[in-house]
Specification:
single chain, 397 residues, alpha/beta, Rossmann fold, 2 domains, three-stranded antiparallel β-sheet, 25% helix, NXPH/NXPE
Length: 397
């Protein structure tokens, strides 16, 4: 509704000078506020302000993402203590990409998940149904490997493992594997997760494959313990695998072939053409952790002796990895126990010139289900890491 002044003959309404500029007033119009009113307006508007969503942030490989996880008990009540075992990963099946996250226990029922971006677009926080206060002690200990040659944190992209520090991981086919291993002796010791490496490489060695422990009239066929050997005389390649000594969970073993890794290492001359790879963890989780500590200490001392008498020897340590657990296996094994062994392993070899292959991270970051024996594509990426160390790319001059 518009209001306009009307002409009138009443003396009080008589025009005295020119009219002020006309303003079209509506029901929503208002006069300019006084300074005090302006301050009050601002305070009232601030009181009801609604936060705007943050502007999209462009993330680059290596940028850090953070998430907060609040744990609840079985009745849905917030927990006020820590000790839960959580793992996290960021993955994208469409891109064949994935990266493992770090979980920080704040000891009050909340956990921070820290993940470095690698291109994926979905976050999975995977709680393991094993809660224990013992994990609190582990969280208070540093697991940084320090001077150990620790492969930097990496990620999968298009199915290949890449390193955040930009160090290229070479990709090897049958021809390049043979070229890399020419003139080399690769000694592999450990459980069946190390036997996987032997079996993968054996497929690329065109020479003779032997099982030295079998005799013609032996009624026992040992398919797990070994020793196994693959020889390529043309290219002077020798691959060997031997299982570690007790404790061991294989059903059929010959006692004479159950040898301790430290003793086997003491028999090696070492040198620039020698590669030693170790993986010992899967059979130790049912036993007191002191058993594992003593075993790793003896192996460390044997490695120190080997590196001293055979300069140039390349020593590779494979970590534990996540595994599938059914009701029966859960009685004696768990990823929580494996995590303890993995942290002991990292600390035990701190300061020693070894290459560490983080199988825990490489299996966690991968999209495949957890399995004590990772699928071939993970094994391929592990072997690529090792051979990149054995045969680094030549620097361009």
């Amino acid at each position: 509704m518009l209001f306009q002044p009307q002409n009138s003959s009443h003396p009080a309404l008589a025009q005295k000078g020119p009219l002020p500029p006309y303003k079209n007033h509506t029901i929503c119009s208002h006069l300019e506020p006084t300074p005090d009113e302006a301050l009050e307006d601002r305070a009232l508007l601030d009181a009801i302000v609604w936060p705007k969503p943050p502007a999209p942030t462009e993330l680059h490989v290596g940028d850090q993402l953070e998430a907060l996880v609040q744990m609840q008990d079985f009745q849905g009540r917030p927990k006020h203590y820590g000790g839960d075992f959580l793992v996290a990963r960021l993955h994208s099946p469409e891109l064949g990409a994935g990266v493992a996250g770090t979980v920080v226990d704040h000891l009050n029922g909340s956990y921070s998940v820290v993940i470095h971006a690698s291109g994926p677009d979905r976050i999975d926080v995977l709680p393991k149904k094993i809660g224990t206060q013992s994990l609190l002690q582990l969280e208070n200990r540093s697991i940084e490997p320090g001077p150990v040659k620790y492969n930097p944190a990496g990620y999968y992209y298009k199915g290949s493992w890449r390193l955040f520090d930009g160090t290229p991981v070479r990709q090897f086919d049958a021809k390049s594997i043979t070229q890399c291993l020419t003139g080399k002796v690769m000694n592999m010791y450990g459980d069946s997760t190390m036997r996987q490496w032997f079996e993968y490489l054996r497929a690329f060695v065109p020479g003779e494959h032997r099982h030295p422990s079998l005799c013609a009239n032996d009624s026992v066929t040992i398919t797990h313990v070994g020793p196994f050997m693959a020889v390529d005389c043309k290219h002077n390649i020798l691959l060997k695998y031997h299982c570690h000594g007790p404790p061991i969970g294989f059903s059929t073993d010959r006692a004479s072939e159950l040898r301790y890794v430290a003793n086997e290492l003491d028999r090696l001359p070492g040198g620039p053409n020698t590669v030693v790879a170790l993986s010992l963890w899967a059979h130790f989780s049912p036993f007191p952790v002191e058993v594992y500590i003593r075993r790793m200490r003896n192996i460390r001392r044997a490695l120190e002796r080997l590196l001293a008498r055979g300069p140039g020897t390349l020593a590779v340590i494979r970590s534990a990895n996540l595994r599938a657990l059914d009701k029966e296996r859960s009685l004696n094994h768990s990823d929580w126990f494996s995590l303890q062994l993995d942290r002991i392993l990292r600390n035990m070899f701190m300061g020693l010139a070894v290459v560490f292959v983080d199988a825990w991270e490489m299996t966690l970051a991968h999209h495949s289900p957890h399995n004590i024996h990772p699928p071939p594509d993970i094994i391929k990426n592990m072997i690529s890491l090792i051979l990149t160390k054995v045969c680094p790319a030549k620097k361009k001059s």
